[in-house]
Design brief:
This protein has 188 residues and is mainly alpha-helical. It folds into two domains: 30-93, Diphtheria Toxin Repressor, domain 2, CATH 1.10.60.30; 108-186, Diphtheria Toxin Repressor, domain 2. The protein is 70% helix and 0% strand. α1 (29-47) packs across α4 and α3 runs antiparallel to α4. The longest helix is centred in the middle third of the chain and has 34 residues, at 95-128. The chain is elongated and about 70 Å long.
Length: 188
């Protein structure tokens, strides 16, 4: 019997239109590597969280233990292997809620840093410029102008005398509280 003609047009291997309903293509190796790297990166971001915040995420115990262990590892290669292990454990966890929680934390952290920087700028301006108190009270009508004036005067005297900055710190805390109140009032 003659051998079948492998090169004949009607005997070609499966074509795209011949694929059955269960013949879904698996992700490429490159895609799988990128996904795994993304999980490892997410795991590394989880390591940066403090223990109390990590506990609120409801991670599986093995994953939480692996993250705690990574914090104690100092050798480069051992850290790399532990991050890979965390990435493998992350396969069993839905990463979207974790990413959302980390993004919220980052946004909160950025807002806190911005508020802190604004309070520092106001404090420095209040200590340097006589008219700044009026500007601050206009910007923050709930502020206690008399208390601010007293703290400004004490902080200037501390600076001039080379004393510890107790009044300057108190001034900063008062300014920071006023900025926080203003932001809370502006938030919906």
């Amino acid at each position: 019997m003659p051998a079948p003609d492998r090169f004949h047009a009607d005997r070609s291997p499966l074509r795209e239109d011949d694929a059955g309903p269960g013949d879904e293509q698996a992700p490429s190796k490159t895609r799988r590597k990128k996904d795994m790297q993304a999980l490892q990166d997410l795991g590394a971001r989880l390591v940066e969280l403090d223990a109390s915040r990590l506990a609120t995420l409801g991670l599986p115990e093995r994953l939480a233990d692996a993250i705690r262990q990574l914090r104690t590892i100092t050798k480069h290669e051992a850290r790399r292997r532990q991050v890979q292990y965390i990435g493998r454990l992350m396969r069993d966890v839905d990463p979207d809620p974790l990413r959302a929680a980390l993004d919220r934390d980052r946004a909160t952290s950025n807002a806190e840093r911005a508020q802190f920087a604004a309070a520092e700028r106001w404090r420095d301006r209040l200590l340097e410029d006589e008219r700044a108190l009026h500007d601050f009270v206009v910007a923050h009508p709930d502020a206690d102008a008399a208390r601010l004036a007293t703290l400004i005067m004490k902080a200037r005297a501390e600076r001039a005398g080379g004393h510890p900055p107790h009044a300057s710190r108190a001034l900063f805390r008062l300014i920071n509280a006023q900025i926080q109140i203003a932001r809370a009032g502006a938030a919906p």
